[in-house]
Amino acid sequence: MTDAALSSTQTALAKWIGFIALCAGMFMAVLDIQIVITSLSVIEAALKIGADRMSWVQTAYLIAEVIAIPVTGLLMRVFTLRWLVTGAITVFTLASIGCALSTGFNSLIAFRVLQGLAGGVLIPVVFSSIFLLFRRGPEQTIATMMGGMLAVLAPALGPITGGLLTENFSWHWLFLINVIPGILTAFAAIIFLPRERPRLSLLSTLDWISLALIAVALAALEIGLKEAPDRGWLSPMAIGLFAIFGSCIYMAVTRPSPAVEFSLLRDRNLSFGCAISFILGMGLFGSVYLLPVFLAFVRHMGPVEVGLILLVTGISQLIMAPVTVFLDQRFSARTLSIAGFACFAAGLAMSGFETPQSGHDELFWPQVVRGASIALCILPVTRFALGLLPLAQVSDASGLYNLSRNLGGAIGIALVDTVIFSRSAEHAGLITDMMTASPEAAATVLGIRSADLPDPDDPLGLMGVMDIIQEASLTLAINEAWLMLAGLTAIAVGLLLAMGPIRVPDGYVPLGKRAKF
User: Fold this and answer.
1) How many structural domains comprise the chain?
2) What pLDDT score was predicted for residue 5?
3) Are 407 and 120 in contact (CB under 8 A)?
């Protein structure tokens, strides 16, 4: 092998090692959301934190993450890809140690905020690097698939990982598990990512006011979405928080040089891509949240059992990944996206007819359909949303693209909670009335014999089946939430049809022989 060929091989190898380090950092950041949520009760007991405050362990992370995502493009220009990733992974690792050493609520929340800020940077960086490091063609397709699959695989692995750690070790390992991978990833980023000179002078021209407005807006939106299902979407608190979000975003966007390049949304492909990414976030995050709720509160399964069932989705994703790469080289991005979202919506709808007795067998095929279609919802959309932009705009566009997905996820979960909170009580009342009007139908809904139904006028008898009524009513509400997510996801198919053929910019030269848009 010649020196030139050897140098080229080393460069290609370094590029892939650096990208794998990026993916590992993103995987840790996404995993850390789900790995903690399964063991909040354990942390609550260990640190003597009130149950009413435990949700902030998650909310603090999510708020910080969603604030960091849109400014990643700016940070990349200032610090360069290499040093931004190294710094983010280092902060994430140190914050993880801090979380494990926390002795109370305040210290835990402070370190969770640091974790979220660092994790929020790592997500869009991966999608930016796909187009900055790799040429258009098979390399870029494979890199997109790796990044997209790890981003959705992490939530599927989170519950079982968290359950195994808390059952076999202690809650501290929910955070300490990040330390060794974090150290290795940071060193890999320093050694293998491209060496560029930071441009710290850009900080002097930054519109700090717009940055503060964006941070306040996104924090208000996240808190509003957290409180709205419980307090009501029209409650003074929810309306006030949404008003703060709208006014702050408006003021930030209308400033002369905002810190986030919202003007990039004038690009037709990116704007459609962000809208579709938003819808994917609702369906993806909503489903990852909804299935564990059913398994935990209706089937009363523990974290490990829940995780084992959710593995079906992850395994389906892994099996479908190489098939998607094959298809991506032979069909247009729009055609594959339509097929992907149609199948994903169908997989969501398939879960909308469960009973309180539904288990692994009934949940298997809906998960297979969803898992197999997720890659088709990610790869082609990412390619036409970001892959046709000038390289100088990719990092900022990636922030907007990933922010859209996360905000869609937050809204999707809030809508799911709203359906569950409001409809389960209504269904409980309807079932109770049905026990008088149509005992046979009531027995079918409850999954018991009609002979076992108590007399509706017997309070003690009703108390005996109250748990069964609650489980049945919750199941019906959860089914409605599944069908709602299916309907919302199907909107993406309509958008893709309305979008028409993807417009390729003038002067664009596809480097991949089979690249199709």
Assistant:
1) 3
2) 43
3) no
